[in-house]
């Protein structure tokens, strides 16, 4: 860490390369014990620059980039398995799912990179994976305001093969860390299903056209074309 006190406003540069750290104590120090967006063992590397007279000032003027990988952790405030089950039940016109909402998702791995500008972290390559499900995502984190705005695409995994199975469910996660709002995007799911059906029809038509064209070419007397 480099601290520059030569100007009226202190500036700081940090180049972390952390391995195997517990993130929950760090988040407690940063935001207090009431805010726990996630926990787990993390590897974090990057470069951060900030300036300000107080910790809040520095957080509002934080810039940089980071790469992170968490393992064996919990995403607090969001039960992805519950919301996937809810969306699938709605699509099948069934009643509410019997799956309990635990307001948390245990994961084996959570990885991604982010760019930070004036305390706003932008991430476009989030990947969360557990034995039961997988989710990709992109969004922003307002670090000073402790506010999240994310779009996830989640799906259940086959219990034996670990491969994705079933619907790919878009889920919006927004709000302050202490009170997240989770909303599956059923309209986007229906649009995706419709597009899949359109693609199937287009593929069948293309196969039929190619097959018919091939049969017509076989019937042609190629030699007669040049006589």
What does this entry look like structurally?
- The protein has 227 residues and is an alpha+beta fold.
- Helix content is 27%, strand content 45%.
- Strands 1, 2, 3, 4, 5, 6, 7, 8, 9, 10 and 11 form an 11-stranded antiparallel β-sheet that branches.
- Strand 1 and strand 2 form a beta hairpin.
- It is elongated and about 85 Å long.
Brief overview:
This protein is of the alpha+beta class. The protein has helices at residues 23-31, 55-60, 80-91, 186-219; strands at residues 2-4, 11-14, 17-22, 38-51, 63-76, 104-117, 120-129, 133-142, 147-157, 164-176, 181-184.
Identify the notable features of this structure and list them briefly.
227 residues, alpha+beta, 2 domains, eleven-stranded antiparallel beta sheet, 11 strands, 45% strand
For the record, the count of structural domains works out to 2
User: Main β-sheet, in a few words?
Assistant: 11 strands, antiparallel
Q: Could you report the average pLDDT, rounded to the nearest whole number? A: 83
Please state the structural category. alpha+beta
- Principal-axes shape call: elongated
- Rg result: 25 Å
Estimated helix fraction: 25-40%
What's the order of the H and E elements?
A: EEEHEHEHEEEEEEH
Low-confidence stretches: none
Number of strands: 11
Distance from N terminus to C terminus (CA atoms, Å) equals 84 Å
Beta-strand share of residues: over 45%
Number of helices: 4
SSE order and pairing:
Elements: E1 2-4, E2 11-14, E3 17-22, H1 23-31, E4 38-51, H2 55-60, E5 63-76, H3 80-91, E6 104-117, E7 120-129, E8 133-142, E9 147-157, E10 164-176, E11 181-184, H4 186-219
Antiparallel strand pairs: 1-2, 2-4, 3-4, 4-5, 5-6, 6-7, 7-8, 8-9, 9-10, 10-11
């Amino acid at each position: 860490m480099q601290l520059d006190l030569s100007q009226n406003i202190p500036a700081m540069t940090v180049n972390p390369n952390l391995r195997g750290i517990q993130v929950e104590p760090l988040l407690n120090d940063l935001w207090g014990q009431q805010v726990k967006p996630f926990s787990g063992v993390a590897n974090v590397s990057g470069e951060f620059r900030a300036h300000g007279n107080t910790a809040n000032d520095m957080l509002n003027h934080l810039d940089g980039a980071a790469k992170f990988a968490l393992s064996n952790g919990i995403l607090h405030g969001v039960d992805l398995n519950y919301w996937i089950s809810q969306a699938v039940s709605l699509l099948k016109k069934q009643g509410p799912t019997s799956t309990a909402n635990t307001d948390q998702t245990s994961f084996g791995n959570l990885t991604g990179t982010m760019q930070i500008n004036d305390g706003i972290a932008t991430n476009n390559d989030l990947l969360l994976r557990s034995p039961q499900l997988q989710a990709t995502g992109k969004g922003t984190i307002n670090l000073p305001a402790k506010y999240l705005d994310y779009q996830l695409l989640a799906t259940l995994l086959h219990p034996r093969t670990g491969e994705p199975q079933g619907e790919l469910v878009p889920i919006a996660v927004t709000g302050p860390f202490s009170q997240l709002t989770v909303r599956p995007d059923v309209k986007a799911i229906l649009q995706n299903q419709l597009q899949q059906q359109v693609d199937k029809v287009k593929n069948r038509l293309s196969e039929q056209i190619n097959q018919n064209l091939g049969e017509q070419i076989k019937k042609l007397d190629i030699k007669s074309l040049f006589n």
